[in-house]
Amino acid sequence: MGDVLKSDVTASSTSTRLTDGCIDSSPFECDYGRHLTVNNDYLYEERIIGVGNVGLFATMDITKGTVLFQEQPFVANASSAEEFEKELIENVQKACDFATQMEFEDLSDRIHQATVMNQGWYSEDEKYSPAVQKDLDRHFEIGMFAKFLLLPPELQQKWLSGHDAFQEISKVGVCAVGIFGLDGGLDLNGKIGKSTGYDDESKSYLVEVPGHDDLVAIKRENLKTPGGVFRCNAFPIGLLSLRARLNHACNNNMDAKIITNTQGGQECELRTNRDISQGEELTGCYLNWSEASTEYRRKALSAKYGFLCQCTACQNDEIVTNV
Predict the structure, then answer these.
(1) How is the chain split among helix, strand and coil, in percent rounded to 5?
(2) Is 41:69 a contact under the CB 8 Å cutoff?
(3) pTM for the full predicted model
């Protein structure tokens, strides 16, 4: 593994966490064209919003019911919870070393035991205790790490172009990490490495980076994980890079619909749900609501996606239903 490199790498202003949306203006490559089966790209354009965020905006007036694009997932989800768990196990066996496989099995046993013993919710808001939730998070991260490792490099880059609102990186064990937002020192932005541990002295993660003999100490704010990106950007059918370019609004103007194509595969169709003016931002809704208050929506979005919603519905304290 080599020695730890005490580099002078520091975070730049572009590493600031997003307050909304789920895509970074990041150094990771994201060519989403080949996964689009319909793309009326003359209707919209991508713009930078503030620091580190992007969004889609209407280039002309668009009438209600217009389809902007249809997109296939570049990483597909399993069709059921049982298939998802089976896929996780198979991927870990294929991609991970023996120690990580043993860690995964131990976590699976503990989670199963906690599920069997659980007779209700741990609290009003949490089904599991903090200890069990920590095991669930690590179990999921290892599963996503394995799935990620089995992908070709271009899809790994595409995966890590998404925003990670959590940046929860284990201090023990290994996991894949994307490096971004560094200013000065080594040219590491956009590289995919492997976190191998934690250095208490520098409060940094020790990252194995291709092309470097030494481990590099990197702060948490400059790392993202496949699991964190997946949690922020995954849709029921999988990871959709262009769909994820739409920022959230509780009173969204775009609706997403899962459709089946002529080959039997699933796609996401994005269609306007009202008339949209030129220059207006195109927005989606990340969660479904039924007469939901601002307090409820903000709490749910903060827990799942890590941001405080500032859409007009929340600013005006409106009740929203979009189911």
Answers:
(1) 30, 25, 40
(2) yes
(3) 0.82
